[in-house]
Structure of DinB family protein:
Amino acid sequence: MPEFIREDLSGSRFERVRLIGAEFRAVNLTDVRIRGALVKDATLHGLELCNVDITGELVGVTVNGVDIGPLVEAELDRRYPDRAKMRPTDPAGFRLAWDTVERLWDGTVQRARSVDPALLHESVDGEWSFIETLRHLVFATECWIYRGILGQPAPWHELSLPWDEMPDTPGVPRDRAVRPSLDEVLELRRDRMATVRELVDDLTEEFLAGDTEPVDGVGWPPAGRSFPVRECLLTVLNEEWEHRLYAERDLTALNSGSGSSGTGPTVSA
């Protein structure tokens, strides 16, 4: 394997690179940007973390002997009282969760309508634009509800947008150049959200406790596998919750004039 010792790799871009088992010693990671990375079974000792912004799922993350995951979860629940509703355990809870999703997104969309429409295509700090975020949520619903639960092999609309690190897949759209209007995307969103609404309204304990039928054809989730219905629904709720927070954050930046379409070096696992 190659070794980089006393090399200056500043500004390098690593995308879809496997660094399993790699070793980093005395490295300077100032201004590094890492997105879509899997850091598992890693040991990081002797760190100096200053002005570091971490967004992600923290499971078994120990800092100076303290598992910080539960602490972060408790603080997020305190900040966002509706957040706990995104972890329902029964059909009534899923209906309440979807009520909450609809209510919160209604407010966010109304806020977006007060922004210059051109800015809704603007990236903030290299993240998806507001329009792209809505397109991705369409894709998430199509994956886990239409394909996963309802068994439709290829449910994707041409405006659907997979996550950036998903490999190019025949039949799955990924058009980052198209610029649909807010109303055009919202019409598509309303259609997909109405399907979720119908599903949760008719949800029973028996169906919720079961598994999906294996789906056919290439796409996501993978063909030939079954998934717990509960996990499919929880995945959609998590996508809706997290991406709305991202959208609210970026709308604040756009309203303040601090939006930027620039991107820095990224690492994708």
In short: The two ends are 18 Å apart (CA to CA).
